[in-house]
Amino acid sequence: QVQLVESGGGSVQPGGSLRLSCAASGFTFGRSVMRWYRQAPGKEREWVAFINIGGDTTNYADSVKGRFTISRDNNKSTVYLQMDSLKPEDTAVYYCKAAQFSYWGQGTQVTVSS
To answer: How far apart are CA 23 and CA 96, in angstroms?
Structure first.
């Protein structure tokens, strides 16, 4: 049974940082491309970042490029999202997803506000 458990969200001021984690189980994590998405209030879910199986290829949405960093630890079956220089428009629920499954976890709330 596929499970993805996101954590690490919270409330921060603009310019602050957070590190999100996504613990995976129920599938072969080391063979899965992983992505982070987010959904802001009243908006559709949008893609944020991508990481390949080996962790040596990443890609980002233009809105977060240069501020967010995706990484993974295949030994821990965990994918991370380091978020720096946070802006109010980054406020959203953040989700991770394995490329080959339609399963979504519960997400973790990130709120950026002064």
So the answer is: 9
Among 104, 86, 111, 113, smallest CA distance to 37 is for: 104
Q: Pick from 29, 20, 33: which is nearest to 2 by CA? A: 29
Q: Is 73:82 a contact under the CB 8 Å cutoff? A: no
Phi and psi torsions of 66, nearest 5°: 90, -10
pLDDT tens by residue, 41-78: 999 999 999 999 999 999 999 999 999 999 999 999 99
pLDDT in tens, 79-95: 999 999 999 999 999 99
